[in-house]
Amino acid sequence: MHALHANPSPSIRHSLLGEIKVPVFHDVEQAAQRIKDHIRRTPLLRSPVLDEIAGARVWLKAENLQVTGSFKARGAFNALLSMSPEQRSRGVIAYSTGNHGQAIAWAAKQLNTKASIVMPSDAPKNKILGALKQGAEVRQYDRRHESRETIGMQILAETGGTLIPPGDHPDVLAGQGTVILEAIADLQRETEEGLDNFITPCGGGGLAAGSSLVLKALSPSTRIFAVEPADFDDTVRSLASGRRESNAAGSQSICDALQAVTPAELPYEINRHALTGAVAVSDAEVAAAIRFALEQLHVLVEPGGCVALAAVLAGKLALNGGNTMLVLSGGNIDMPLLETVLR
């Protein structure tokens, strides 16, 4: 495996941020250096039981053990650290179903920056409280009747701060890519063989896109799969149709972290070329994966963070006996939901 530097990245037009560039592998390398003192180097986990079920050697990147409880801390810190002190002094705004908001709130607190977080009123209470505990202002909205993007833009106009969306931001995507950059380095210490399959949870598509930047540079033969909840399978359908598809209004899932309405524009621009495929898993399969993680891996993973594991356990992907890595992307599960899953 070797580093491959792409040409200067193109840009796309985006409704919220104007013209934004598509990040490249070098941006991920820079992000890794920028955030290394602020995030945790999470371990790779193994399970002989999982290897037997999968018919392959499987490594699990435990981002559920990351600061703030999810991989989102990486993109949040990279975005804030990429800003000038003068920009940070005006504050930041983020919209989020939970984990991105908590991560922005945490990063802002560490960097003495004011944060305003737009979160749905039905978001898990532990995620809302997580942002509040970091000193962020949380503005809640009804996701059935209100637009988080519109509210975010209103706050932007009121405060003069900087909007940091969860997907459509090049510095956020570059930060998320450090998940697999770190994991590949650790994997190479365990095996001289290459990585055949990479499986990632997918909401707006930021983790998949950031990871793809790294894999296309360091391990271009690796197959990349995204996994979504069954009623939020917009990426599955978008890859099939060749355009960004939306989920039906009123769709429900226990995977609160992955309830994007449609793939984010910037991640989709990357993922439509990079992904080998995408699959969806049911809530029952996700619940089984949460229980497996507790019983066999001895870690707590939230529903959205467990979909990649669920897909492997349910046999949704043909791994062909190859070395496989999947991401446990978050561990911020609401306790009442955990009680229900365990029952």
Give me the CATH fold name of the largest domain: Rossmann fold
Which CATH class of the largest domain is shown?
Alpha Beta
How many domains make up the coordinates?
2
Q: Any guess at the CATH architecture of the largest domain?
A: 3-Layer(aba) Sandwich
Computed over alpha carbons, the radius of gyration is 18 Å
Question: What structural class do you assign from the helix and strand content?
Answer: alpha/beta
Number of strands: 12
Q: What is the strand arrangement across the widest sheet?
A: 3-4-12-9-10-11
Q: First CA to last CA: what distance?
A: 45 Å
The best one-word shape is globular
What share of residues is helical? 40-55%
Give the topology string: H per helix, E per strand.
EEHEHEHHEHEHEHEHEHEHHEHHEH
Main sheet, how many strands, which sense, barrel? 6 strands, mixed
Low-confidence stretches: 1-8, 13-17
Q: Could you report the average pLDDT, rounded to the nearest whole number? A: 93
Instruction: Bin the strand percentage.
Output: 15-25%
